[in-house]
Write a structure and sequence with these properties.
globular; eight-stranded mixed beta sheet; ten-stranded mixed beta sheet; alpha+beta
C-alpha cells in the first residue's frame, strides 16, 4: 500500500526533522520542488521537502492546466524549448501520468485567406513534427463549414477556416500532489505548512535550514549536505534570506482564467486564438470551459494574486469576438489567478520573456532552479539534482524519472478498459467510476476500501454533487490535506467549479474531516469561517478594477 500522508505520518516526520543529516533538503512544494524530491529520492538520496503552505499552493495549481510545447514559442524561434516540452508531453501521456494527463483537441480559427493558413499551418505542422512519435493525433486543415461543425458556437464571419490540432491537459494541483506522494513512496519526507525561516551555515557552505512548523508553532533545524531552492516566484525572497546575490532574478507575470458551464458554449473542441499580447485558450474541463489567460506584470502579494474586473473584461472581450452568443459576467462560475516565474531578460513585456530554466549554485551547497514551464518540470528537477549529485560526489546514479510512473499510473489502462465491471462490483455508476479513475488512477481501489468500510461515503457531497464524500476523507487520510482550503481548492476544484465557490459544501466537508484531523468544535467553526472569509474576499477583489485595489481587498483575509 502506498504511503499515506495522514496526520500520523506528519507527526512522525516532524519529530524526525532534527535527527540525522540528510543528503538533500528541497524548499518548495510546487511541481518543480516535488519533482526534485522524487528525482533525488529515486537515485537513493535521503530527502526532505518542506513547503510553507500546501502542495501546489502557488503557481502549480493556477496554470492553464495544459501539458504542451507552446505554439507561441515557435514564433519566438525557441525550437529547443518546444521540442523538450513536447517530449515531456509524450512521456506524461504514455508513461508517467496517463491517469492525470489526457489529449485534448484545439481549433485555431483563421481570419485571413491564403497567407495565414500557410503561415499557421506550417507552424502547427512543425509542432507535430517536433512532438515525435504519434502521442496525439496529427493536425487537420478545415474549411469554414468543417470548423463550424466542430464549433457551432463560433460566428461564421469570424473565420475563413481553421486548423485542428491536439495537445494535452492535466489537473495541475492533483498531479503535483501525486508527485510528492510518489517521492514519499521512494523514501522522501514531504511536509506542508513548514516554513523556512533561516539557513544553516557551516562556514560559507549552506548546511540546512531552520523551519517553523505552522501547525504547532515549534521550530526545527534540518541539517543537510545540500539544499535546493525550488521556490518559483519566491526566488528573490530566497536571495534576501541567503544574503548572496543570485546570477538571475525572477519577474512575476499574472495569468487569469475564468470558468463557465460546459453547456454555455456549443463546442466539441477547445479553442486557441491570438491576442495582441499572446494567445487565449478555451479549454474543456469536465463540466466547464476554462478560458484564459492574461499576461501582465505583477509586483504585489505573491501568495494571493487576484483577478480584477479589468482582467475578466479582457478575457470576455477577446473570446466574444468569435462567439455567436457573447458570454457575460453572469455566466462565470469561477475565476483564478496565478503568477508565472519568468527569469528577467532584456524585454520589458512579460509575454516575451523566455520560459527556459536555469540552475545555479550561488553559495556552496545551495542550488537554485528557476524559470521553466509546468510541462518541463521533470527536466528541471533532473537538472538541479544532477548539479547536487556533482557536489555530493560518489557513485550517484543518473535520473530515472523518465521511466518512473507516478502513483496511480500502473494498472490504470486496464482499469479503464474494465470500467463497467468496476461499476458493477462496487455499485457505483460507470460515470462515477470514470470520474474517479481520472482523478486517482489505479489508486481508486483505496477509495473503494473507504466506501466498503463506511458505505455512507459513497454519497455525493452536498453542495458539490460531482464529488463523493469518500474523496473528501481520502484527501486527509492519504493526500496530506490539513485545512479546508487544501481540500476545496486543490485536492478537489470545488472552489472554482460551483457557482457559490464551495460555500454550501464547506460545512459538510469540515464535518467529514474534523475527527480525522483532531479538530475541536471551535477549530471546525474557525476553519469554516476562514474559508467563507476567503471566498468573500476573493469575490470582492474580482469587483475591483485595478490590481492594487484588488490586492487590498484580498488581503483583508490573508490566508
Amino acid at each position: 500500500m502506498p504511503v499515506q500522508l495522514d496526520r500520523t505520518y506528519r507527526e512522525r516526520a516532524v519529530a524526525a526533522l532534527d535527527a540525522d543529516e540528510i543528503d538533500v533538503l528541497v524548499i518548495g512544494g510546487g511541481v518543480t520542488g516535488a519533482g526534485a524530491a522524487l528525482d533525488a529520492a529515486a537515485r537513493g538520496l535521503s530527502v526532505t521537502l518542506v513547503e510553507a503552505r500546501d502542495f501546489a499552493a502557488g503557481t502549480s495549481s493556477r496554470s492553464s492546466k495544459l501539458i504542451h510545447g507552446g505554439l507561441r514559442y515557435l514564433e519566438q524561434m525557441d525550437f529547443a524549448l518546444v521540442r523538450e516540452a513536447l517530449k515531456e508531453r509524450g512521456l506524461l501521456l504514455n508513461t508517467l501520468a496517463p491517469h492525470l494527463v489526457h489529449p485534448v483537441p484545439f481549433l485555431f480559427p483563421l481570419q485571413h485567406r491564403v497567407w495565414e493558413r500557410a503561415y499557421i499551418g506550417a507552424g502547427i505542422a512543425l509542432y507535430d513534427t517536433l512532438g515525435g512519435a504519434r502521442t496525439v493525433p496529427m493536425h487537420k486543415h478545415l474549411t469554414r463549414t468543417g470548423a463550424l461543425e466542430l464549433a457551432p458556437a463560433l460566428r461564421e464571419d469570424a473565420m475563413t477556416g481553421a486548423i485542428r490540432y491536439y495537445d494535452a491537459q492535466v489537473d495541475d494541483a492533483r498531479h503535483t500532489m501525486m508527485i510528492a506522494r510518489t517521492a514519499a513512496e521512494h523514501g522522501a519526507t514531504v511536509l506542508t505548512r513548514t516554513q523556512v525561516i533561516g539557513l544553516e551555515r557551516d562556514g560559507e557552505r549552506v548546511a540546512g535550514a531552520r523551519v517553523l512548523d505552522l501547525e504547532t508553532g515549534l521550530t526545527h533545524t534540518i541539517r543537510a549536505r545540500t539544499v535546493i531552492s525550488a521556490t518559483g516566484v519566491w526566488t528573490d525572497d530566497m536571495i534576501k534570506l541567503t544574503g548572496v546575490d543570485f546570477p538571475f532574478h525572477v519577474r512575476m507575470s499574472k495569468g487569469v482564467h475564468i470558468l463557465v458551464p460546459r453547456e454555455r458554449l456549443d463546442l466539441r473542441t477547445g479553442l486557441i486564438m491570438r491576442t495582441e499580447k499572446s494567445v487565449l485558450f478555451v479549454i474543456p474541463w469536465a463540466e466547464h470551459w476554462i478560458i484564459g489567460t492574461t499576461d501582465t506584470d505583477w509586483a504585489l502579494d505573491k501568495n494571493h494574486p487576484t483577478a480584477t474586473a479589468a482582467d475578466v473584461r479582457y478575457i470576455l472581450d477577446h473570446v466574444n469576438a468569435l462567439l455567436r452568443e457573447p458570454l457575460t459576467r453572469a455566466d462565470i462560475v469561477g475565476t483564478y489567478a496565478g503568477l508565472r516565474p519568468l527569469m528577467t531578460g532584456a524585454s520589458k513585456e512579460t509575454a516575451k520573456l523566455s520560459r527556459e530554466h536555469a540552475v545555479a549554485e550561488p553559495a556552496p551547497g545551495l542550488f537554485v532552479i528557476a524559470g521553466g514551464k509546468y510541462t518541463t518540470y521533470r527536466v528541471m528537477a533532473a537538472d538541479v539534482v544532477d548539479a547536487v549529485a556533482a557536489r555530493l560526489g560518489g557513485d550517484i546514479p543518473a535520473s530515472t524519472t523518465a521511466q518512473l510512473p507516478i502513483l496511480g499510473a500502473a494498472g490504470y489502462a486496464e482499469m479503464v478498459a474494465d470500467t463497467t465491471a468496476l461499476a458493477q462490483s462496487t455499485g457505483l455508476s460507470a460515470e462515477v467510476v470514470a470520474h474517479l479513475l481520472g482523478r486517482y488512477g489505479s489508486l481508486i481501489t483505496d477509495l473503494f476500501a473507504l466506501i466498503d468500510a463506511d458505505p455512507t461515503l459513497r454519497e455525493p457531497l452536498p453542495g458539490a454533487p460531482d464529488h463523493l464524500a469518500a474523496e473528501i476523507v481520502y484527501a486527509v487520510t492519504h493526500e496530506g490535506a490539513l485545512h479546508l482550503d487544501d481540500i476545496l481548492t486543490r485536492r478537489t476544484r470545488i472552489s472554482i467549479e460551483v457557482p457559490d465557490r464551495g460555500l454550501a459544501a464547506a460545512p459538510d466537508v469540515a464535518r467529514l474531516v474534523a475527527p480525522l484531523l483532531g479538530w475541536s468544535v471551535e477549530t471546525t467553526d474557525a476553519e469554516i469561517n476562514r474559508y467563507y472569509d476567503r471566498v468573500h474576499a476573493e469575490l470582492a477583489a474580482n469587483e475591483a478594477d485595478d490590481d492594487a485595489t484588488a490586492n487590498d481587498a484580498r488581503l483583508a483575509v490573508a490566508r
